[in-house]
Amino acid sequence: MNSQPELWRLSAVELARRYRDGSLTPRAVAQACLARLDAVNPQLNAVVARRDAALLQDADAATARFAAGQPLSLLDGIVLTLKDNLLTQDQPACWGTPALREHRSAHDELPVARLRAAGALILGKTNVPEFTLEGYTSNPVFGTTRNPWNPALTPGGSSGGAVAGVAAGIAPLALGTDGGGSIRRPASHCGVVGLKPSIGAIARGQGLPSLLLDFEVVGPMGRSVADVKLLFDALRGPQAADRHSLAAEAARGQPRSGPLRILYVPTLDGAPVDPEIVANCAQAARRLAELGHTVTEGAMPLDLAFMATAWPVVGQVGLAHLFETHPQWREGASAKYLEMAQQGAAQPAARLWGILETVAQLRGDCARLFREIDVIVTPAAAALPWPAEQAFPPVIAGQPVGPRGHAVFTGWVNAAGLPALAVPAQPSSSGLPIGVQLIGAYGADDMLLDLGEAYEAQAPWAGRWPPL
What we know:
Amidase signature (AS) enzymes, 11-stranded mixed sheet, 468 residues, alpha/beta
């Protein structure tokens, strides 16, 4: 048996196997994860709310179930974290804002309820930017989260605390949300795997209000594709109250065999991309070709120009609606978000209606495109991690960029409702992680996971740990 201090290094899949053969108990792993949390979280500020006593109590219950030969699921006894915009009945959901510092829910939202029913062990909540609307992770309540590979740098956002915790070994799995790349870009910045599922693949319900229409989904993060798949399988499935989940179940793809038609897109409309990201993602595309797939390089065959102007409007209108329906949350919100809400309230209804029509057109265009190809591959982010307190990198590849310059590859995938998987590519020359994004047709989540697992076998990274 591994000594206890090293149990935090084990994958979720390995933990599930060892629980079943009796060589390890959930109690021992929970204790090891808490010890790792104590050791590294002061440097990172990844976990902002803990439930130590409840975690150990839950771990004892899971240990008893395995002793009786009655585990609840493959996820039973596995430690994970929750992003601090997911509602739980036993912890606040602060959402990174003083406005909700003490906000508590009387219930778990649906994905959290499914985790508890599966026997997962919830360690605590991970840090987010205010209202989860930024691509880095810092807020007035809990402060700044740092990247395990270089604590002077950001892990990205808005699932920055989640990926930092996984990369550092605080927990093998994390559950977060992705409304414009908030799982995939942080995963790429921290060298872990992140899945943004098809809209509805993981049913949602009884959560915080949406700020990004139906673009935001719940998704898993882990140190390997197999671990991410384990969590995804435990959470997926329809729920009658979420009509998107019914559509996702109907669209769920069948297992694929044979070579895939892959389009590698190195940039969008000439947007600047860090040279090392360009080189290492091209290498990842070549690895996919070496697996026997047909890989071509070219421009994105979709008109995505609307994203640059539409994306800010969606968040602004979402905040305006939030403060209109929950006026008490306006008190304590940072001035930046109050101004955004004011801008949203000033938008004409016709503007939002036009965005909805454009999104519907994009979804139709994607359905037609994926009849001709199977996978689109892009970098997951256009920039390497930047200083932790900085909201975005102002320059990429020597060119000035705006707040979404680093995020050009991800937001359109949310608008289109497609699944996308971020997996690590070759790191930069300084050792900073780089991620590549695999995008599939609506419902093709399983195909992407299979492709990611095959790629991972050719380019393993799970044994690479940050020097904390």
